């Protein structure tokens, strides 16, 4: 009875003002439904594959591969886990101390501190004010918005394009050159073969399969890496790999894989394997060259007609130059490849048509330029460059390179640059004597030592004094090396802005965090088949953006509005206007060559197919007439010796390919007495770099005790008392991480593998999350870049050298801390 | 009959009040309202119920001190860290995160299970996807009642604020039995767990008291419904 | 008017009957005809008399044809109207007949019944035919000329290069070979139309001893009249005009060449791989075509270079007075096309000899025709660190 009274009291207070602010409202029209019934199968695409989705009560229910993808990967099973991830960034948020104190905030709190929700207007205004402050106080050299990396697929909503166009309307900023994947390769090869090679279409698989007698897979795992592509992947390459497998089985093609580990491709093809000590490939190549040269097996006519500088290289090969003949016996000591195996390999390479297929791993190390250069020299000596099934490729493991291009024109994209004739609000181009472009992997160096002058690719680079960075769909706390070094330097930044779908480590280390929606929550357009350009894919919005997230287009349209430049930004067009324009421009470019229906029909169908292209041989035109079709090298020929590089006088990249000892090398190399294990941090098997790592249910299919797997050699593991399923602490002087042991004979003694892209989640020694912000904190999940070296490959490329990395490991015996990688900002307590 | 109806209206107000505290941050407007005469008399009425008085008084005391923008921001940061992000020190406001295991969401392998048992609460590491079955069920309930979630509140249907607001709606539209059945199935199944989590992680304490108040209120109200 | 009635019936026959199985070309030539009246009607429309009977062609296209190699040649094989204008396969033939209904319309309503009207409509009609050729992959051409049976040996290297590139893509013949059977309509240009729209086709009269710039990659000839190509002039290249004769101008081209091969590639300057012109082997061998001057060794490569000048003829079109519009167009294209995947590097980030390698290594996802590619590459080289001093 008393209770009834107090209830009456409540009513008597007429406290209805508050109570009316209910989160519920009367049902109006049913949720907006597009022209197409939303419960039909809709089409979209991703790096993992093109796929179809079906909705149930407004939520993505089923995902299945696109009809034309005959070799889909199971990574599309992780798609729902990306969209409905508990770690979605749900609202625009600002770090509390930054909100209160702006550019004078306590930046050491980054990575473990408190955020507050703000409205989009507040967030974007704050974003603009920060930019104002930077441009006013420091000019364009204070701002680095030149991010690198992948993105979600789609030509309209491409995250970097939007961010850089919008920020470019405000002012100028520091940019990057190169990328983490192929930094050394794409820098050295233009000097040698006259093109980056790594991103160029390669000889078509059908020609390789028809003509090659031997295929050498050098540090190359296409069966793993072809699962993902730059555009909507449709996995055409796998058909050719299947044919290759058949040919290997029938003995029609010999495939020899040279690799320290037994790769997924080796296992699939059932091919021959040659073990080589990590980082010693150049020594092996030199010995093969020595063998060819001393036995007069090299193609002298080809060398004479198509290359320059062989005579400058030979004295080095024979030892005339440095007193060391690069004999098979010399190489055996370094590489652990037996002398007779090297001899046999040399003979095999010239015994018939031999196609060299190089992977990217061996250039992602100190002196990473050398193995790529030396491999080109080897291919020149073999003399089959420009022949079908012969010569050398640096890309057949990437985005369908080798699948004949359809020849269709691909759609353009939303413009990344500010339109011609428009000036940014802050139009200063005064970088205060510093460089406006820096090598991509050297930005932490710049924060560490602003004003320092370094050598890079024949020029001098002066580091700018970076005070603010912007990351959109970009996670440098994954792709950069040496976390603890990053931690030491990152707090010098006054302001960090991050735009993403889920809370990455980069978001946690930011001041302003903005929620973007996933590709499933927006409309877009893309090609499928990447380099093959098999067709055009409609990326149809499945659900409305979750929470308060927005598409990249919408985020930066609103930002442009804050700048007073909305019209300039959008050119007065909305999302569908742009899609129609991109489609129609593409249709026009293909007019008379490929039949494309009207946009509406295309959107209804979900795709337009361009079909298969015609086989093509890389460098064939050069071989046919090197005068009319010269390479893009200084001489137009293959440069075995480069006078241009020689003139730079770099001690770590000389005039011809050279074997150089590394700062750290396993198997008896420098540092191996202290940390005897080489850590391989190659591209993951179950992710696209760090994308998809956060998808919980899918991650659970491969983690060990919730940790990223570390692949261990059985003898090494046994020696350390570790068995399958244990948690392992991997460490060196740079850092430490926890990972889950997978003991496998695929990994030789002295070698472990942790796939890059494992999300960073530091914790304190006591398992506390606040402790994770400390320099040296252990990574609870297993990010290998906690351990890698942040050094340039050489003065030439200044590229990422993650593969020059020694570690040791032990069984983890402490109290197992929780995984902290997949969550928002960490500690609530003040 | 009209007596019951008035009671129901009062109960609805309480549910909506609690819902709004979980829906968004405390604003200076809300502080002004709650510290006004009307607001005070509302809170005092609630405090008449002995089991509620402790938390109501604590909330009242906290409100009285919220006299600066900075303090409101601190409270907003508490709210954000607790309910707007996912993390080990956050508290999921979604029923699905607590009930999914029972609804069939199964962990993947034994090793993972072992890790969970070692590293503490199984529930904490076994995060399931948002917008799951409970979201779908709630959406269906709302649609059946000609209701939808306000577009300014872009959250899944199994958010605690939605569930509380829906109960407020049931208070004035359906019978005790129906109300009780919904509350027991969709709120009481996880509310104490939720409250426990808030108490563990909310160092500012305001939301501890809000969560306590919610749990205590539900205990009182379900008892009332049972005896009605 | 009986044919008209037949045709009308044909056109009105429901599509489902018309699409019945496609009879192979072989079967068609062997005279295996199943379809009675329908087929007869089609055949009746496939003779020249039939075409010129109604197409009011006697005065114009038919007479133009008679002046070309398709009418009179060594082989004695003559191409007649239907050989090119009626597709030689069934499915397409039917489709073409459907399309022809607009010709019938034109005849009935005298759309093109005067020479003036014909000229006015020439581009429109030609465009329709070209589009059809492209759709058909120039099947009509390939019935007589196919890539496989071409006499590659007798072609010049340049022709081979272009033809092989076309063969690789199975390119439609009329992409390049327009105006081979009739007078070419007055039109902008089929090559790089956006570029030409931007920079224009150049003046109609030229001043001797003045400098002009090529707006496209242009063929060079030995003489003012002959068809013998002596090479190609690269896009955006500066030339001096020496004299004009009818539709040709004599140009002086200067630059440097590498002393390798036949030395037939002329570059912009000593040691700089910016393409100016490529001459045919024949031209390079012909006394007096290339005049060589001083020689220097390039320290960067060890290659010997020689300063050269050559004087050759080219068509009096696509030679413009200023270079800047070409650079403006190239800059815009570079900035939009090369930022689809990544941020485009600054022009001055690389030197003139590094750009070709960077550019060629990155164009997989870029849509540029060959002229535009050549132009953008040259733009990048011309604005590289070699010429624009700027720290990077």
**Treating each run of at least 4 consecutive H or I residues as one helix, how many helices of chain C?**
16
Strand order of the largest sheet of chain C: 2-3-7-6-5-9
DSSP, total strands of chain C: 10
What portion of the residues of chain B fall into strands of 2 or more residues? under 5%
What order do the SSEs of chain B take from the amino end to the carboxyl end, as H and E? HHHHHHHHHEHHHH
Find the CATH topology of chain B: Four Helix Bundle (Hemerythrin (Met), subunit A)
Low-pLDDT runs of 5+ residues of chain C are: 1-45, 103-109
Summarize the main sheet of chain B: none
**Mean pLDDT over the residues of chain C:** 74
Low-confidence stretches of chain B: 101-125
Our Rg estimate of chain C from Cα atoms comes to: 25 Å
Largest interface: A-B, 78 and 92 residues
Mean pLDDT of chain B: 86
- Percent in helix of chain C: 25-40%
Considering the chains and any ligands shown, give keywords for the structure.
heterotrimer, A: 830 residues, alpha/beta, 29 helices, 32 strands, globular, B: 228 residues, mainly alpha, Four Helix Bundle (Hemerythrin (Met), subunit A), 13 helices, 70% helix, 1% strand
Folded structure, characterized:
Chain A has 830 residues and is α/β, with parallel strands linked by helices. Among the domains of chain A are: 183-402 and 631-648, 3-Layer(aba) Sandwich (Dimethylsulfoxide Reductase, domain 2); 677-827, Barwin-like endoglucanases (Beta Barrel). In chain A, the strands form nine sheets. In chain A, strands 6-5-20-19-18-7 form a six-stranded mixed sheet. In chain A, strands 26-28-27-32-25-29 form a six-stranded mixed sheet. Chain A has a five-stranded parallel sheet with strand order 11-10-9-13-14, covered by helices on one side. In chain A, helix 7 runs parallel beside helix 17, helix 12 packs across helix 16 (339-351) and helix 12 packs parallel to helix 17. The longest helix of chain A has 18 residues, at 120-137. Chain A is globular and about 105 Å long. Chain B is mainly alpha-helical and 228 residues long. Chain B is globular. The two termini of chain B are 13 Å apart. The model of chain B is unreliable at 101-125 (pLDDT under 50). By secondary structure, chain C is α+β, with helices and mostly antiparallel strands. Chain C has a six-stranded antiparallel β-barrel. Chains in contact: A-B, A-C. Chains A and B meet through helix 1, helix 2, strand 1, helix 4 and strand 6 of A and helix 1, helix 2, helix 3, helix 5 and helix 7 of B. Chain B: Involved in the biogenesis of TorA. Acts on TorA before the insertion of the molybdenum cofactor and, as a result, probably favors a conformation of the apoenzyme that is competent for acquiring the cofactor. Chain B: Its main location: cytoplasm. Chain B: InterPro entries: Chaperone_TorD, DMSO/NO3_reduct_chaperone, HscB_C_sf, TorD-like_sf, TorD/DmsD_chaperones.
């Amino acid at each position: 009875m008393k209770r009834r009274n107090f209830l009456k009291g409540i009513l008597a207070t007429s406290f209805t003002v508050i109570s009316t602010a209910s989160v519920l409202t009367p049902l109006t029209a049913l949720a907006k439904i597009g022209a197409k019934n939303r419960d039909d199968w809709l089409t979209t695409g991703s790096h993992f594959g093109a796929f179809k989705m079906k909705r149930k009560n407004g939520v993505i229910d089923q995902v299945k591969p696109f009809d034309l993808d005959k070799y889909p990967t199971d990574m599309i099973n992780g798609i729902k886990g990306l969209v409905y991830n508990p770690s979605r960034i749900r609202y625009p948020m600002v770090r509390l101390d930054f909100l209160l104190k702006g550019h004078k905030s306590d930046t050491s709190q980054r990575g473990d501190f408190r955020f507050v929700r703000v409205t989009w207007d507040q967030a974007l205004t704050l974003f603009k004010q920060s930019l104002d402050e930077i441009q006013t106080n420091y000019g364009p050299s204070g701002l680095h918005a030149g991010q690198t990396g992948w993105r979600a697929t789609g030509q309209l909503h491409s995250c970097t394009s939007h961010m850089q166009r919008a920020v470019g309307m405000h002012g100028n900023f520091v940019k990057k050159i190169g990328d983490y994947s192929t930094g050394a390769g794409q820098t050295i090869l233009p000097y040698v073969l006259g093109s980056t090679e790594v991103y160029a279409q390669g000889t078509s698989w059908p020609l390789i399969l028809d003509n090659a007698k031997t295929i050498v897979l050098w540090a190359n795992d296409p069966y793993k890496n072809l699962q993902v592509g730059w555009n909507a992947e449709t996995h055409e390459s796998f058909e050719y790999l299947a044919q290759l497998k058949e040919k290997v089985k029938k003995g029609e093609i010999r495939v020899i894989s040279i690799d320290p580990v037994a790769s997924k491709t080796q296992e699939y093809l059932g091919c021959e394997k040659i073990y080589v000590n990590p980082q010693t490939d150049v020594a092996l190549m030199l010995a093969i060259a020595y063998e060819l040269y001393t036995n007069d097996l090299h193609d002298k006519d080809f060398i004479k007609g198509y290359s320059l500088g062989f005579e400058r290289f030979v004295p080095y090969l024979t030892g005339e130059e440095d007193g060391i003949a690069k004999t098979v016996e010399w190489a055996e000591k370094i590489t652990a490849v037996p002398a007779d195996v090297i001899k046999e390999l040399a003979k095999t390479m010239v015994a018939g048509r031999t196609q060299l297929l190089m992977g990217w791993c061996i250039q992602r190390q100190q002196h990473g330029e050398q193995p790529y250069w030396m491999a080109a020299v080897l291919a020149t000596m073999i003399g089959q460059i420009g022949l079908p099934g012969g010569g050398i490729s640096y890309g057949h493991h990437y985005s369908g390179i080798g699948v004949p291009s359809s020849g269709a024109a691909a759609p353009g994209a939303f413009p990344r640059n500010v339109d011609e004739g428009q000036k940014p609000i802050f139009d200063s181009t005064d970088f205060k004597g510093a460089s406006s472009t820096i090598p991509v992997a050297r930005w932490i160096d710049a924060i560490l030592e602003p004003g320092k002058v370094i050598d890079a690719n024949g020029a001098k680079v002066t580091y700018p004094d970076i005070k603010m960075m912007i990351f959109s769909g970009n996670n440098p706390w994954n792709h950069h090396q040496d976390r603890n070094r990053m931690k030491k330097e990152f707090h010098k930044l006054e302001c960090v802005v991050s735009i993403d779908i889920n809370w990455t480590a980069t978001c946690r280390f930011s001041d302003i965090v903005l929620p973007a929606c996933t590709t499933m929550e927006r409309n877009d357009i893309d090609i499928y088949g990447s380099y093959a350009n098999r067709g055009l894919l409609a990326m149809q919005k499945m659900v409305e953006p979750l929470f308060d997230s927005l598409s990249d287009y919408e985020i930066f349209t609103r930002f442009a509005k804050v700048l007073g430049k909305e019209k300039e930004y959008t050119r007065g067009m909305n999302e569908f206007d742009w899609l129609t324009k991109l489609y129609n421009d593409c249709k026009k470019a293909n007019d008379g060559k490929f039949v494309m229906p009207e946009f509406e029909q295309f959107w209804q169908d979900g795709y337009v197919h361009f079909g298969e292209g015609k086989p093509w041989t890389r460098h064939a035109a050069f071989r046919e007439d090197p005068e009319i079709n010269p390479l893009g090298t200084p001489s137009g020929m293959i440069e075995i010796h480069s006078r241009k590089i020689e003139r730079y006088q770099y001690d770590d990249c000389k005039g011809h390919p050279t074997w150089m000892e590394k700062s750290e090398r396993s198997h008896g190399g420098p540092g191996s007495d202290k940390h005897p294990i080489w850590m391989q941090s190659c591209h993951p098997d179950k992710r696209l770099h760090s994308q998809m790592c956060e998808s919980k249910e899918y991650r659970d299919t491969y983690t060990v005790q919730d940790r990223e797997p570390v692949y261990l050699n059985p003898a090494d593991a046994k020696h350390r008392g570790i068995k399958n399923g244990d948690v392992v602490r991997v460490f060196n002087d740079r850092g430490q991480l926890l990972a889950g042991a997978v003991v496998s004979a695929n990994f030789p003694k002295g070698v472990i593998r942790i796939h890059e892209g494992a999300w960073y989640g530091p914790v304190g020694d006591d398992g506390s999350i606040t402790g994770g912000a400390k320099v040296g904190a252990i990574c609870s999940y297993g990010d290998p870049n906690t351990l890698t070296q942040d050094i340039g490959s050489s003065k030439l490329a200044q590229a990422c050298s993650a593969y020059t990395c020694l570690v040791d490991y032990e069984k983890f015996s402490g109290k197992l801390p929780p995984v902290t990688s997949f969550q928002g900002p960490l500690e609530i307590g003040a | 009959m009209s007596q019951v109806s008035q009671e129901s209206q009062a109960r609805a107000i309480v549910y909506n009040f609690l819902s709004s505290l979980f829906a968004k941050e405390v604003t200076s407007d809300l502080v002004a309202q709650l510290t006004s005469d009307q607001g005070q008399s509302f809170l005092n009425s609630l405090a008449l119920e002995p089991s509620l008085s402790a938390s109501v008084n604590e909330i009242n005391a906290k409100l009285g001190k919220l006299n600066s923008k900075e303090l409101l921001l601190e409270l907003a940061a508490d709210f954000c860290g607790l309910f707007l992000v996912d993390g080990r020190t956050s508290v999921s406001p979604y029923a699905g995160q607590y009930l999914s295991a029972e609804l069939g969401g199964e962990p993947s392998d034994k090793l993972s299970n072992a890790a969970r048992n070692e590293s503490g609460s199984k529930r904490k590491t076994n995060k399931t996807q948002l917008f799951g079955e409970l979201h779908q069920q709630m959406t269906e309930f709302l649609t059946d009642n000609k209701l939808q979630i306000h577009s300014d509140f872009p959250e899944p249907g199994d958010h605690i604020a939605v569930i509380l607001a829906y109960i407020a709606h049931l208070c004035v539209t359906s019978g005790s039995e129906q109300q009780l059945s919904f509350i027991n199935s969709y709120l009481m199944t996880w509310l104490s767990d939720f409250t426990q989590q808030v108490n563990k992680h909310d160092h500012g304490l305001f939301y501890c008291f809000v969560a306590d108040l919610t749990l205590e209120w539900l205990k009182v109200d379900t008892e009332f419904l049972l005896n009605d | 008017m009986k044919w008209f009635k037949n045709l009308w019936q044909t056109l009105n026959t429901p599509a489902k009957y018309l699409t019945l199985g496609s009879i192979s070309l072989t079967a068609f030539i062997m005279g295996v005809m199943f379809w009675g009246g329908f087929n007869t009607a089609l055949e009746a429309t496939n003779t020249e008399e039939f075409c010129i009977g109604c197409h009011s062609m006697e005065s114009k296209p038919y007479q133009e044809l008679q002046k070309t190699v398709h009418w009179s040649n060594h082989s004695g094989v003559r191409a007649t109207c239907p050989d090119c204008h009626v597709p030689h396969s069934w499915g397409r033939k039917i489709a073409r007949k459907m399309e022809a209904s607009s010709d019938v319309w034109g005849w009935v309503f005298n759309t093109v019944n005067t020479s003036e009207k014909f000229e006015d409509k020439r581009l429109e009609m030609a465009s329709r035919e070209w589009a059809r050729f492209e759709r058909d992959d120039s099947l009509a051409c390939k019935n007589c000329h196919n890539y496989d049976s071409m006499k590659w040996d007798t072609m010049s290297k340049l022709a081979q290069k272009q033809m092989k590139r076309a063969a690789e893509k199975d390119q439609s013949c009329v992409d390049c070979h327009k105006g081979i059977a009739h007078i070419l309509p007055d039109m902008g240009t089929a090559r790089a139309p956006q570029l030409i729209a931007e920079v224009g086709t150049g003046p109609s009269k030229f001043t001797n001893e003045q400098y002009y710039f090529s707006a496209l990659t242009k063929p060079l000839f030995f003489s003012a009249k002959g068809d013998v190509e002596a090479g190609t002039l690269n896009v955006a290249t500066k030339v001096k005009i020496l004299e004009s004769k009818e539709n040709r101008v004599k140009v002086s081209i200067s630059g440097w060449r590498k002393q390798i091969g036949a030395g037939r590639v002329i570059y912009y300057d000593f040691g700089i791989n910016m393409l100016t012109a490529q001459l045919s082997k024949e031209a390079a061998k012909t006394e007096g075509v290339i005049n060589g001057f001083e020689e220097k060794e390039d320290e960067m490569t060890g290659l010997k270079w020689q300063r050269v000048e050559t004087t050759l003829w080219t068509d009096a079109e696509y030679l413009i007075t200023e270079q800047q519009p070409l650079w403006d167009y190239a800059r815009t294209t570079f900035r939009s096309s090369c930022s689809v995947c990544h941020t485009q590097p600054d022009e001055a980030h690389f030197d003139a000899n590094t750009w070709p390698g960077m550019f060629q290594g990155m164009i997989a996802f870029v849509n540029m025709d060959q002229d535009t590619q050549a132009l953008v590459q040259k733009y990048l080289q011309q604005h590289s660190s070699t010429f624009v001093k700027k720290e990077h």
